[in-house]
Design a protein that fits this description.
eight-stranded mixed beta sheet, binds alpha-D-galactopyranose, 11 helices, about 20% strand, alpha+beta
């Protein structure tokens, strides 16, 4: 289904649910990170692309002209009612509407409080699959509020507002990658983002000969748990011992020099981050040159580092990567790695376009046989970022 069709379908669902048509419809995509994992909060590089899976939000002014907001979702969550006349604060941890609530609070804090409204949210980004369903929800809400309040934000400020919503309202101390790519994604481009300077470069990915194949292990990843925050703290400790502001400023040689003064786990965390930043820059060069074997090797190396040094993989993710390796370049697979925060979720593989069907079948069958879990596989071209579908 195209994004326009998806917008139409959510418009119809809104009309059915609220008994009148929406005035505004906005959408924001999920993402897959090609390489550069757990580097964003270390001031490093990341290399994500938006996927053609979107969160769509349709809204209309409150029927009674009040400051009341009603948020409904098509995913079976109970609806939320907010009163914009009162100070906003986070709901209980784990509550689904904390994401849009945090974004609304960000607009209120900038003096752009919307009037009351009803909204319906629908998403084709798999929830909890490591494809940034949360960022898609935040950024779609922000895009809706921009058009609703007339307060157009600069893209960087918009991404940061959404990141703050996730920190303060969802309690997840994420980096900036997911919100940036959901705001700035561009069709047929992968985004090279320098998380220190926040400079971005859109690198074309137009070679029709290769595809990015996403495999959802269907093992839910849960990042609001403590592991993510623990990794961040370990990276900060490594930077402190190294005497640098962030791991971006270190290199492999410098790390070896302080190794004896570092806890072995902290050392391994730093080794992952430092090597991953380097791999990311090389992979971006590889994409620019359509050098798929090199990009693929870097993806495998990234996976091994995340598994062995950063300890954020899981047996199911490793199984998909093993299967990819056994298919090999002759079978059309150049590389494969876990993508996103880890502990479940998805892998991303770089594969020959003509062999997608055969590769998908083989991964699905072997994965199910080995894990007893049915995976979900799909390909996506790099897709467009957040957009207003109607009412803009
Ligand atoms: C999650 C976070 C991102 C990033 C990745 C790991 O997706 O939201 O900021 O840190 O994990 O690369």
């Amino acid at each position: 289904m195209s994004l326009q069709e998806l917008g139409k379908s959510v418009t119809e669902q809104f009309t059915k649910s609220f008994g009148r048509p929406p005035r505004w419809v906005a959408a924001a995509p999920g993402r897959v990170n090609v390489i550069g994992e757990h580097t964003d909060y270390n001031d490093g590089f990341v290399f994500p692309m938006a996927i053609d899976r979107y969160t769509v939000i349709a809204a209309a002014p409150a029927a009674d002209g009040s400051k009341r907001v009603e948020l409904r979702s098509t995913h079976g969550d109970s609806p939320a009612t907010l009163d914009l006349g009162q100070a906003l604060k986070p709901a209980k941890k784990g509550t689904w509407y904390n994401y849009p609530l945090g974004v609304i609070a960000g607009f209120v804090a900038r003096g752009a409080s919307p009037a009351g409204f009803d909204a319906l949210i629908h998403s084709t980004v798999p929830l909890g699959g490591g494809l940034s369903s949360s960022a898609a929800l935040e950024v779609s809400t922000a895009t809706l509020l921009e058009t609703m309040t007339g307060k157009k934000l600069d893209p960087v400020e918009k991404a940061l507002l959404c990141q703050k919503a996730e920190h303060d309202y969802a309690g997840m101390p994420c980096g900036i990658m997911d919100q940036f790519i959901s705001v700035m994604g561009k069709q047929d481009h992968i985004l090279l983002l320098d998380c220190r300077s926040r400079q971005t470069e859109l690198i074309p990915m137009t070679d029709a000969g290769v595809e990015l194949l996403i495999t959802n292990t269907n093992v839910k990843h849960e990042l609001t748990g403590g592991e993510y925050a623990k990794r961040r703290a370990q990276c900060e400790e490594a930077a402190r011992i190294l005497g640098v502001a962030s791991l971006r400023d270190a290199d492999a040689e410098r790390l070896e020099r302080v190794r004896s003064r570092m806890d072995p786990v902290v050392y391994r965390r730093a080794r992952h981050v430092i090597s991953e930043i380097e791999r990311t820059v090389h992979a971006a060069e590889g994409v620019r040159a359509s050098n798929w074997p090199t990009v693929g090797q870097l993806m495998y190396a990234s996976h091994a580092s995340l598994r062995d040094d950063y300890d954020v993989s899981c047996p199911e993710l490793d199984t998909v990567v093993d299967i990819a390796l056994s298919i090999g370049p002759r079978g059309g697979v150049h590389g494969c790695r876990m993508t996103g925060g880890g502990f479940g979720g998805c892998t991303v593989a770089l594969v020959d376009a003509g062999k997608v069907a055969a590769i998908s079948e083989r991964i699905a069958a072997e994965y199910e046989q080995r894990t007893k879990i049915k995976p979900t596989l799909f390909v996506s071209r790099p897709a467009a970022g957040a957009t207003v579908l109607s009412g803009g």
